[in-house]
Fold this sequence. Notes:
Blueprint: H1 2-24, E1 30-36, E2 42-47, E3 52-66, E4 74-86, E5 96-98, H2 99-103, E6 109-113, E7 120-127, E8 133-141, E9 144-152, E10 161-171, H3 185-192, H4 216-225, H5 234-246, H6 257-276
Antiparallel strand pairs: 1-3, 1-10, 2-3, 2-10, 3-4, 4-5, 4-6, 6-7, 7-8, 8-9, 9-10
Helix pairs in contact: 1-6
Amino acid sequence: MKRLLLLAVVCSVVVSSPLAAQGQEGVPDLRRHYHFVPRLSRVVQTGGIAGVHIEYRVIGKYDLITASRPWSGTARFENAEAWGSIISPLPAPAVVLDVDEAFNLEGLKGEQLPVAAPFDVFRFTGETADGSSVQLFASMLGRWMYLRGETTPPKGSADFFEYQLRALARQRPFADFNGDGVVDRNDLEHWAAPSSSGAPQAAELADANDDLLSDGADFLDWQRQYGETAPDVSHADALLSSLLASGSPAVAGVPEPATAVLALAALAALVRRRHRS
């Protein structure tokens, strides 16, 4: 009886795996909209002929696309509109860094890593237009995403800029209108205050849902999220730092469905052999 039950389980897995794969073909990938928290997101630019060291505050947004098939584990960025403004206590020149271009965000290929952590981790790799390699890790902390990344110039190159990213983003809608990572009364004041220019830019809008309007819908989002604060990213930062330092994370690959079927078949054979002995 036990043998028949075990055989039935193995057969059901063998039959259901290809059927599940076929059923997932028509399911669209999951798209999530994220917005950088400016005061908790920055890019550091170093190198070049002059040996610069410039820090930028990151503003903007992006979409994260993850595969609908759970065993695929692939991910990518789309609609990245991320910019860096120089951080300085002094009057700074109007220099803006295109963060998407610096890291080639939309050109990176991502994969989920099977790490021993209470949150999902994705690794993104690729190259920039000048041939620098990009390595970026992202940890999923509920509705938040913490990112660590860096670029490395080609071997033998000189006078290349290098970039390091450390950023926190949150899914839309998000009623943190002043970009400090906390939804509080200051955000309500920002929502209620009239624009100084009459026609506010997108970055100035108290726009929680990214519809380019500051209206009652954004006020309702503020009410729902009042009191929310940015998560503690210390554990995620330690893990991503170790992954960046190692260069190539020493983690096992995610098994394909066929591999799981073979493992079950081997287990069935082992149980049958022990039963006979």
